[in-house]
Structure formats: structure tokens, C-alpha cells
Amino acid sequence: PDPKVEKVMVLMTDGENTKSKNGRWHNKGNKKDADDKTKALCGLIKAEDIHIYTIAYEVTDSATKTLLSNCATDSGSYFDAKNAAQLSSAFEEIANSLNALRISA
């Protein structure tokens, strides 16, 4: 709750939402339901002033990329990493942005 502390979340996936939560277990295979829950959770997280970085790692599904892009706090917080080098670069960019925040505070 300290206003001087920025809360951050990194969400990374390597594929489509294929399971939605049904009670305590992720055993319900419904992509639309899983996507809807992801959208809702992203909205709730942003409403709590938590900065969301999202990374699509080797994701080929355009709907999943759109979901992750929309979930990110802003366009600069979404990364489409097509390989391990780009994934490493995405994490490095996120780390650098967090260091910049710390230095300027």
C-alpha cells in the first residue's frame, strides 16, 4: 500500500489459453472461458494500479497475442518474443525499465 512503491507483474505464456479454471483445478477445456477470465483478471489487476508486462513467447495464435497486448498496461509493456534471444531481450528491457523507476524515485 506504500504509494512510493510501484507494483509490477510479468505475465508470460508460450501458447493459447486452453484450460479454464473450474473450481480448484484447471481441468475445463474452454478457450473462450479462459480468455474471458484472463481479460477480467487483467482489468482487476490494472484497477489495483499494478503495472502489467506481458510476453508472448513463440506464440503463433493472433487472438492470444491480442489478448496479451490488451492485458499489458500499455503498448510498450507487451513483448512478442519469437525466440530465446528475443525473450531474453524482453526480460532485459523490463528489468531496465524497473531500474530506471528505482533510480528516478
Provide structural commentary.
This protein has 105 residues and is an alpha/beta fold. It contains three helices and five strands. The strands form two sheets. A three-stranded parallel sheet has the order 1-4-5, sandwiched between helices. Helix 2 (62-71) links the parallel strand 4 (50-57) and strand 5. Helix 1 packs parallel to helix 2 (62-71). The longest helix is centred in the last third of the chain and has 21 residues, at 84-104. It is globular, with a radius of gyration of 15 Å. The mean pLDDT is 87.
Concise overview:
The protein is globular and about 40 Å long. The protein is α/β, with parallel strands linked by helices and 105 residues long. It has helices at 31-47, 62-71, 84-104, and strands at residues 7-13, 20-22, 25-28, 50-57, 78-81.
